[in-house]
Amino acid sequence: MGPRRIIVLLIAVIAAGGTAMYARSWIEGQQTSVAVAAPAPKQEIHEVLVADTNLPAGTFVKPQHLRWQRWPTDDVPDSYVLRGKRPDTEMVGAVVRSFIAAGEPITDGAVVKPGDRGFLAAVLSPGMRAVSVPITPTSSNAGLIFPGDRVDLILTQALTSGDNGGATRRVSETVLKDLRIIAMGADLSDAVEPGKANERAKTATFEVTPRQAEAVALLTELGKLSLSLRSLATDQEAANAPATMGDSLTWDKDVSHVLKTGRVSSRLLVLRGNNTEDVKVQQGSKQ
Fold this sequence. Notes:
Layout: H1 3-37, E1 46-51, E2 66-71, E3 95-96, E4 111-112, H2 119-123, E5 129-134, E6 150-160, E7 168-184, E8 203-208, H3 210-222, E9 224-229, H4 236-240, E10 244-251, H5 252-255, H6 257-261, E11 267-272, E12 275-280
Antiparallel strand pairs: 1-2, 3-4, 5-8, 6-7, 6-9, 7-8, 7-10, 11-12
């Protein structure tokens, strides 16, 4: 083989090698371009409704109890409230069935919503009872007492004494203290419009012990019942203490100077339906 032919052969080999290298480089570049042009599908971000603080059983859910939290996976149970599909207001006004820890999702099974069967029972603390009493706008602070407030129950009754000619005396006493209101009429929520009052409520429902429920049933037969609203500025220990029976009495002579001094008229006009009766009252009576 001549030198010229050897040189031609070497040139051909070099050219073939360069062409192969160029082709390989071009193919790799094309593959890289395709990979850059087709990025991986973006993962959808989910947010679920969770408790912003610990919620004990019987708590009325309020807007400040809730917040949205990112969910780490695409597998979101149907019972969770998913942002964009269900509003957070859907859970406002519901009552917690059992303890929900802060950061735990609010599920349909964890709460009872107004109108659901067992809603009132879910409001009650374990071992407690619900009992209702009739009220008027005057006896209920002009309808400005709402579910969640705490009140004292005052009984006012008229007593006829066997002494002093059977004179009638009036006395009031705080019979139950620190009762939790769970309903005013049929309204179990404290979410009211500003300036609105529970003026249409004819009953107030309290959370009481079984013993207190018996006492309230009897009190409704003895005289007029009034609600005395308690301040929210109470220490935590007092707020968690069970409602107690009262031990204070206020007689009519304690608030009326005339009755206290005994300077009363000797005659009393008594109205009974369409009939009137002139009754003689003993002078100087203090009982």
